[in-house]
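Kindly inspect this chain:
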Amino acid sequence: MKSYHNSVVLRNDGEDPSTLKLDLNAGISEQVTVRISSTQVLASIFDINGVATGNPLTTDSNGNYAFKADDETYDIIVREGTLDEVRIEKVEISEAIPSDIRSFGAIPDGVFNSGTALFNACATGNTVVITKTPLPYVFELIEAQVNTVLDNLKFIRAEQEILIQLPEMDITRGTIQVGAEYMLNITVRGETVSQQSITSINIDSQAAGDHRVTFSVSDSSAYSVGGFVFVKTLTGTNRAEMLAGVWPVTAVSAGSVQCKITAFKATLPAITVSGGIISDAKTIIRVNGDVGIDALGGGECGRWRSMVLAGDGLGGTEAHGVRILGGKISLAASTAEPFGVYGFAGHGQYALENSFMQNFDSYSSGNTRNGVYFLDGSTGQSTRVISTGNGLPGLVCSILSNAAASQSILSGNGQRGILGSGGSYVVANTALIYENGDAGVRSDKDSTVDIDGAKVAGSVSFGIRSNHGRIIGAVDFTGGNGAADEFTEDNGTINAISKRYYQVGAGSGATASGLANGFVTDSDAANGISVLNKENQYGYFFLGNEVDNAEAGFRYRGTSNALDFFTQGSVQWSINSSKHWAPNTDDLLDIGTSSRGIRSGYINEFKMRSPDSTLWTVTVNDAGVLVVT
């Protein structure tokens, strides 16, 4: 039998005999009837001491009542048969849940003692309530308990923060459904990774999407073929950082670990590595042909740490690693507890319809579509995200979405490193955007991509490209074939605003003068700068200062096919459409001064105007005599 407690709102405005004042609860009581729901037969009920009691029972003078009954579903009726009758239908009273899950108190000294209790609770298939206490809750699971708990995550009502600790394991299962009111209080953490230093690498073989790279380490005993590693913080030459990612292990030998790197180009640069960090993923969850973590219903989706979520590349374009719709999720949070997504047929990490994804220090590699994708007003805290070797762009913000992705590595992807589209905003300051297809960075349709201090190199077509969008920031970049490429179309803009120099191209071997290195074009062939406008429009080149931004310069007048030269903020000289060189005002400008004349002048005909405005022509005849006419 199980106890049931409740109370009744008393409906009598009688007089309290002790105060002689009207009182809602004027010392009266109410009748409560308990019936079996399925038959409406009066139930056998007992008081809290287990003694049989009458049915209906009577509340105390404050409206409180309690009883015990056998496991069953009951209807509880207050004031049965009156106009004020209140029915509480289908109340399940049951003590079928095992008694060992009544208390989930974890010992607050690092001892985990509640994993079995949580497993038993989840195994009932009911909502599991974890009440708030001053003590932390830590649930350490064994592998046999993991799937049951993961299947019921969205039914756990955690009223305070809890940690579900997964063991070292490599399991295959179905989609993990998340999204519930209390899930933001839940952290699911895999076994802590162990980090080692990388001393060097060797590129063993190369093919588009399948580069076998061996990392040299001091101890390879923790790694196994078919497992996964996290690679980061690489130092070296020729864009070594692009090897960062979450990668499958393809071979292990003493002191070395070989991985499959899914960079899309057929050939990697001649990379050398002098340092870096490699970590073995001890907790691996494989989901074949489906979504890994899914929250189509929105809501809180929990915090996920220290694990790899691996797909098999099957299931079609909607088989994403992580998908949240209108919800909130946290993936990773520090370099010590990485979260990686690898090998899904859809996007690696996908947030849509005003979702929020905190995914800094997370990894997304080897997925068929986008590495990280924010859509329909979604927001990402994506600092230091590593999105490498994916089939489409590394990071996409589309339709009024935004992401803060500074210090990220967005390299080796099949299309762009970064794509902003549809009025979105991306901040990727100091990001490393190497060896991507199409363009390193692209901004379309009223979007802004801020890549101040980023490095863009080795893109197939363009380093940075803008189409009805805006790209801002001073960028250290080279595009395809070692040359710096940037391209704007349809009112796109690219602005360098922070560094004191902007260089396009490489190849002449020359170094720009320190007095004129604000903008440099550098080429090993014919080179120059073009200012192209619509017909009948003006093209300007100005020099100025903080007081006057057009102090000097020149302009091309497309309306009259003339070239004007400015000083002191206005046109002083022009070459007009008849190819005449003339001052802009009459009888005010000189060529030379009283102390600085012109050494020689080669003139066929010289014209002078007298004070009466008569124009005289001065020539010289074959005898060397001046002739004035």
